[in-house]
Specification:
The chain is an alpha/beta fold. It is built from 10 helices and 25 strands.
Length: about 600
């Protein structure tokens, strides 16, 4: 993460120190397998969304290059061939920032990004973006002019800053822009040790942003104390991603958001609310429900992995393991909703909008994945005061992850000559899981009061007649985005089956880790942690997995794996292994 330097006389450039650790994107290429992109790429082939048509912005702190201030990515780099990168802040021609280039490579580069078809980018210096070029923050308490109109849909912020005396106006203007223009802003936390509040990462204290940390947990947590609404100690990050610094984990999430926006925009049928299927923002850009800021944020959070098997960075610790790591809105203090899984989030959006029963949703249950955008909710002005989503019944336990997101309401522009009104109202919604067979009794709830997301991570028992329910705390009219997924979880341990090395047997599911000695891969041998033979977890079973087996167990004999969970290692396990590798069952337990 790069900082703005305090040498700038502009008060917007008052900065806090931040560690800068950025390596070339190529060295972290495996992150795409860790976040589900490789698997999605294999499943969709040529139909994989790639960010085509999504206009973005990249905002960067200044980096000293040969004694001069640089913030532009290197437009001559081959990663950006065919792309238009606008030098909005008038950087010196030919002066490029290595930090900006590394971030850009993972955000929209041709070979390292999950959204390589992004071709239109506006590049800003952070102090200029906060000032006249975009946010138009001024000294006036009422705020001066309205933020500049932009055709961008996603902005990446791999920088941290503080703006003493102006912080409340920066945050409120940013939240207004996200709400008004459906302009998604992805902001990185400061690098740190996982325990300190993010006082210097100003933008992550905004309500409507997507705040990003590292999968290793090496980042600051929480929010800065700004005012009576933008309070300290709120849940940050929202999500984490692999990266050797937050500077790189942030564009990984921004690129994933671009992939989802492209999906929602290109497929009008995915947005189907009976009242409103979309909106047109100030720039004249049509935004469908499936690509709204609340829906994309909810899909990213609901689709996140709480259990990881990374090859590019350290894994998440045990999710919500102790009371101190459990936030009031259902997240983990260190990891937010968990690690980015773009495949899960894509499948949530691709499942389409599914309304609540009160809004004429599905006649029976919703699908195992999906989302809803409700344009008016809360009991005021004729809006619903309850929204119920009947979940499908399964003969096996299922892991439910759900995220409810709404934007804080900032008043914004007032009549000519009156400036920009920074008054803000944070409404309060709750997300419940109810048991219909028990008269609607609540079995799980997320009821935080300080933030604008509610989240559930719950095992739904076999044959349970459960439903998600959204209720308002108070009376108002507000829109929200809700996203959910139900994944098979035969052993009911809170990790979906594809994250376990499990096999169902006559007496019930048997779970083995790589060493066969516990439910999770706690002994660190790194093998056999899924219900298939993809031992390196790159989304495909291939010769690399065979090589791992040979290294671990030698070149002959059966691997010490009870793959069918019958209590012994025998030729049946060898047969399963050969089938998994696409070979006929045979006597050998290894793939040669």
């Amino acid at each position: 993460m790069i900082r703005l330097r305090p040498a700038w006389t502009n008060p917007l450039a008052a900065m806090a120190a931040c560690g800068l650790a950025l390596v070339s994107a190529g060295s972290l290429a495996d992150y795409r397998a860790d976040v589900g992109y490789t698997r999605l790429q294999q499943e969709l082939g040529g139909a994989l969304p790639d960010g085509a048509g999504v206009v973005v912005s990249q905002i960067e702190g200044v980096q000293s290059v040969y004694g001069q201030d640089a913030w532009m990515p290197d437009i001559t780099d081959g990663e950006f061939a065919g792309k238009t990168i606008l030098n909005v802040s008038n950087a010196t021609a030919g002066l490029y920032s290595g930090h900006a280039t590394g971030v850009a490579t993972d955000f929209y580069g041709l070979t390292s990004s999950m959204a390589p078809a992004i071709t239109s980018i506006s590049a800003y210096a952070a102090f200029d973006w906060m000032g006249p070029r975009y946010l138009a923050t001024t000294y006036q308490a009422a705020g001066g002019p309205t933020p500049v109109v932009s055709t961008s849909r996603i902005a990446n912020h791999s920088w941290v800053a503080s703006a003493p005396g102006l912080d409340t106006y920066v945050l409120r203007r940013l939240d207004w822009v996200i709400e008004t223009d459906e302009f998604i802003h992805v902001a990185g936390l400061n690098n740190g040790n996982g325990s300190s509040p993010s006082a210097s990462a100003l933008l992550t204290s905004a309500f409507n942003v997507i705040a990003v940390g590292r999968s290793s947990g090496q980042h600051d947590t929480g929010t800065a104390a700004v005012d009576g609404i933008y309070t300290a100690g709120r849940a940050r990050p929202h999500i984490v991603a692999p990266g050797n610094s937050t500077s790189l984990s942030t564009p990984h999430v921004a690129a994933a958001a671009a992939l989802l926006v492209a999906t929602g925009h290109a497929n009008a049928v995915l947005s189907s609310d009976p009242v409103s299927v979309g909106m047109t923002n100030r720039a004249g850009v049509v935004v469908r429900n499936a690509e709204r800021s609340t829906v994309v944020k909810a899909a990213l959070m609901a689709g996140a992995d709480r259990v990881t098997h990374n090859s590019s960075e350290g894994n998440l610790g045990i999710y919500r393991d102790v009371a101190g790591n459990r936030t009031a809105n259902g997240l983990d203090r260190r990891y937010g909703a968990g690690q980015l899984n773009v495949r899960n989030s894509y499948l949530i959006i691709a499942a389409g909008e599914q309304g609540s029963g009160e809004d004429g949703g599905p006649a029976s249950s919703v699908a195992t994945r999906g989302f809803d955008y409700d344009p008016a909710f809360g009991g005021a002005s004729g809006s619903n005061a309850t929204a119920t989503y009947l979940l499908p019944v399964s003969a096996q336990p299922q892991l439910l992850t759900a995220a409810l997101v709404w934007n804080i309401d900032v008043t914004g522009p007032v009549p000519p000559g009156m400036g920009f009104d920074t008054s803000a109202t944070l409404h309060n919604l709750d997300l419940l899981l109810i048991d219909l067979a028990a008269g609607g009794a609540t079995v799980a709830a997320s009821q935080g009061t300080a933030d604008n997301t509610e989240n559930l991570w719950v095992v739904v028992p076999a044959n349970a007649q459960y439903a998600l329910r959204v209720i308002p705390a108070g009376t108002f009219s507000r829109d929200y985005g809700l996203a959910w997924q139900l994944l098979p979880d035969a052993d009911g341990d809170g990790a979906p089956d594809e994250r376990d090395n499990c096999r169902a047997v006559a007496n019930g599911p048997v779970l083995r880790d790589a060493g066969g000695n516990s439910q999770l891969d706690t002994n660190g041998d790194g093998y056999g942690n899924r219900c298939d033979a993809d031992f390196n977890n790159n989304g495909v079973v291939d010769s690399q997995d065979g090589a791992l087996l040979r290294v671990a167990f030698g070149s002959a004999g059966y691997p010490d794996r009870d793959l069918n969970g019958n209590g012994i290692v025998d030729s049946q396990d060898g047969a399963l292994l050969r089938v998994a590798f696409g070979q006929p069952p045979g006597p050998s337990g290894l793939v040669q």
